[in-house]
Design a protein that fits this description.
Helices cover 35% and strands 27% of the residues. It is α/β, with parallel strands linked by helices. The protein has a domain of 221 residues: FAD/NAD(P)-binding domain. Strands 5-4-13-14-15-12-16 form a seven-stranded mixed sheet, sandwiched between helices. It is globular and about 65 Å long.
């Protein structure tokens, strides 16, 4: 019988909550910690498609996700003076088909959290260091507590602190795709959009405004390319000023959005980044989700990689009866081809957006059709093992 029982999971995002669910279901005792004070509400829309749909059905949450899904009915491309260039139905505009569904990040995490009511979850918690030995892992928390765990799973995102603690700098690479950046935040729905997304793209820059179920609120997205070298990517004031410098002469609604930006309560900014690693495990530590294999936000597949990775990591620990070395080897072996295919998709999509000229009807239609085809193939490019 396995001696692996107590597992510390770091990060209460999609990957962290999902891996806790499967670990608990497979007989382990995970403990979840999150450095933030609470789960962030709202956030960007996340697609669930391909084999990830099979996983959420196994979790018996697919129907809940459908009830809380986004409901954008129309997607519209406009030029810099606001003239409509092309319209599509909302699902095709967002590259979804059949059972594919989109849900806001915060809503999905809320659903996932309800599936792990019996898992201890501690907010405002982070760690200073860990010490691996033959018997267990000693965890030194920032509040001076010291605890022992059998395994550690880092699910703390692209800027993972666990990855930096455990892995040497030559064991991972952060690749900024096409020198691209993005920002997402909420503003008042001053355009009175209703279940509609409007997008303007030109000169390697893109602005979109979406209003979905809340008629008072709109979500804005900025994307652009830049060769700017950041000294401190995490400084919010610097990020906002950078957006002002980039988009001040963009046209369309950019200036009004920039004026509303400082009052947003959920401002988010980052680079379009992939995480490249040969192995996502080291000793008694494993990484899952964006911490280990971010495919890029533009791929639309990060959420699905997190769900698939969490299922396989927990499932292989069960199949190996807690022999974590065997389980970690299988996790790396099974998931790598799927990750590589999705990262190739992420790189291709990143090159396909942010065109030098305004998006024409022909360019928009061709791009949508090609992305739909590629996404359908790649989101199903793994056969899920059965662990029960």
């Amino acid at each position: 019988m396995s001696t692996i029982k107590k597992i510390l999971v770091i990060g209460a995002g999609i990957a962290g909550t999902a891996v806790c669910y499967w670990l608990r279901r497979f007989g382990f005792y995970p403990v979840l910690i999150e450095k933030s004070a609470c789960i962030r509400k709202g956030g960007q829309g996340l697609d669930i498609r391909g084999v990830a749909i099979d996983i959420v059905k196994k979790m018996v949450i697919y129907e809940q996700i459908c009830k809380m899904r986004t409901q954008v009915e129309c997607g519209r491309y406009v030029d810099v003076v606001g003239k409509t260039l092309h319209e599509e139905k909302g699902e095709k505009f967002a590259f979804r088909q059949d059972e594919d569904v989109e849900i806001l990040r915060g809503d999905l995490i809320e659903i996932l959290m309800k599936t792990i009511d019996d898992v201890p979850c501690h907010f405002n918690q982070s760690i200073d260091s860990i010490e691996q030995n033959d018997d267990d892992v000693i965890v030194y928390f920032k509040d001076a507590r010291v605890e022992h765990y059998d395994l550690i799973i880092g699910a703390d995102g692209i800027h993972s602190s666990i990855r930096r603690m455990v892995f040497d700098k030559d064991e991972y690479r952060l690749v900024n795709l096409a020198e691209a950046y993005f920002s997402i935040f909420s503003i008042p729905n001053y355009l009175n959009l209703s279940h509609t997304e409007v997008q303007c793209e030109t000169n390697e820059k893109l602005v979109s405004i979406t209003s979905d179920k809340d008629p008072k609120t709109a979500q804005v997205a900025f994307m652009f390319r830049s060769q700017h070298v950041w000294n401190n990517l995490r400084d919010e004031h610097e990020q906002m000023q950078f957006l002002r410098d980039i988009f001040h002469d963009f046209g369309w609604e950019a200036q009004k959005i920039l004026e509303l930006m400082p009052n947003s309560h959920d401002f988010y900014f980052d680079s379009v980044t992939q995480v490249k690693m040969r192995s996502w495990t080291k000793g008694q530590v494993a990484l899952v989700g964006d911490a280990s294999y971010s495919a890029s936000p533009l791929s639309g597949q990060g959420n699905n990689l997190a769900l698939v990775g969490a299922y396989i990591l927990a499932g292989e620990l069960k199949a190996a009866e807690g022999n974590y070395r065997l389980a970690f080897n299988r996790y790396n072996e099974l998931l790598h081809p799927f990750v590589e295919a999705n990262q190739q998709l992420g790189a291709w999509v990143s090159e396909s957006f942010l065109v030098p000229d305004a998006v024409s009807k022909e360019v928009a239609e061709e791009r949508s059709n090609r992305i739909l085809q590629k996404v359908q193939i790649i989101s199903n490019a793994i056969k899920l093992p059965e662990y029960e």
